[in-house]
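Hi all, long-time lurker, first post. I run a small reading group and we've been trying to get comfortable going from sequence to structure in the token notation. Rather than ask abstract questions, I figured I'd post a concrete chain and ask someone more experienced to write out its structure so we can walk through it together at our next meeting. Sequence below, copied exactly:
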Amino acid sequence: MTAERIPRFFLYGEPPREVADRFLHLESIDDRTRPANWNIRPHAHTNLTHAFFVRDGGGRMFADATILPFEAPCLLIVPSNVVHGFQYRAGAEGSVVTISDLYLQDLLRREAEFRTLFACPRALPHKPDQFDRSLQELSRELSWTAPGHASAVEALLISMLVSAVRLIHEAVVLEQPHGAAAALVARFREAVEANYRTNTQVECFAQSLGVSAKRLRAACLRAAGTTPLRIIQDRLLVEAKRLMLYSNMTVAETAYYLGFDDPAYFTRFFARGCGASPRSFRKSPPA
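-- Answer (accepted) --
Happy to help. Here is the structure in token form:
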């Protein structure tokens, strides 16, 4: 039997296809959620990041092995490659902004503060009507090609991202570390994301980043409060949890897929990180 892996879509329900460099899409939450009876099954997107502006209603967002309850008005962030799904209360209203990773990376290079917003899945409450006008104007700009169209779209998008980042600071949800250590750790995390299935050696990552393993360790301890090896292992563990929760791959298939030579070692690795064996975790996922 062929193992069923986590579904990957372009937009939800659409087969994967190439994403344009500056792809930006806006639609109503209702468009795909109502036909699915307000339940969106777990899936992922390879090169697309979502921001859900929930105007009315509430529900639960499943992001990897985490469950995030939410109540309107709120903003839900889902970075690319995160396995996510939703259980909305019937009648929920709002908008979904989808942006390509290449476009987002361009914005991140110009405004480093945005990295905080997209560091992980999150649910951020905000003031009623805070984003409504910007979303209405963005919808209008995306539907025509008047002079200055591209600049107007980007200006509205950046304005909303700035407001979202300020929500984080106002709520003291996350303090972003600054300086050279944070920049190095950000580069390291990007390298881990691209290679965690094929490389778990800290020394190899350090060499590819042009620094010593000692310097990489010091940067991780300072900016992330953990070691480079733990960052690599945590990424492996996240993917292992995804596969246990959202695929029918066996423990052995999951082990080999993630680059482990020995399924028994993978089982011990998983149990140390989760406090339960892969099979137990699959039978009794976190509530």
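A couple of things your group might point at:
The domain at 24-171 is CATH 2.60.120.280 (Jelly Rolls).
The longest helix spans residues 149-171.
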